[in-house]
Specification:
The structure is a single chain. The chain is built from 6 helices and no strands. By secondary structure, it is an all-alpha fold. The chain has a single domain, classed as Glycerol uptake facilitator protein (Up-down Bundle), CATH 1.20.1080.10. Helix 1 packs antiparallel against helix 3, helix 1 packs across helix 5 and helix 4 packs antiparallel against helix 5.
């Protein structure tokens, strides 16, 4: 059970970078989001690696299963805990940033500035 809780926490931790960029008006940029998320994943690997292997991503879990480093019976609980962690984090961010209605509404596509054809 500790493994699945660790995966839940690891997946929960990485979802705030994009929302922080939106709240700051884009000051963080895509590079900042990538660096933030990468450093969070690095911290989760160091923190949770001994407990669960710190997959923190269903694709990594499936990769471990294909390479026979994870038993098949553990794949579904791992993926379920990772998805639950991501959904819980998203709901938490929605609760914390409820005033940002425009962030949660679909955006219109950007205007075309030139014709490629």
């Amino acid at each position: 059970m500790k493994r699945y809780v660790a995966e839940f926490i690891g997946t929960f931790a990485g979802t705030g970078a994009i929302v922080t960029n939106e709240v700051s008006g884009g000051v963080i940029t895509h590079v900042g989001i990538a660096l933030t998320f990468g450093l969070i994943v690095l911290a989760m690997i160091y923190t949770l690696g001994d407990i669960s292997g710190a997959h923190v991503n269903p694709a990594v879990t499936i990769g471990f299963w294909f390479s026979r480093r994870l038993h098949g019976r553990e794949v579904l609980p791992y993926v379920a805990s990772q998805c639950l962690g991501a959904l819980t984090a998203s709901a938490t961010l929605r609760f914390l940033f409820f005033q940002m209605i425009s962030f949660w509404e679909p955006r219109s596509p950007p205007a075309r500035t030139h014709n490629l054809l």
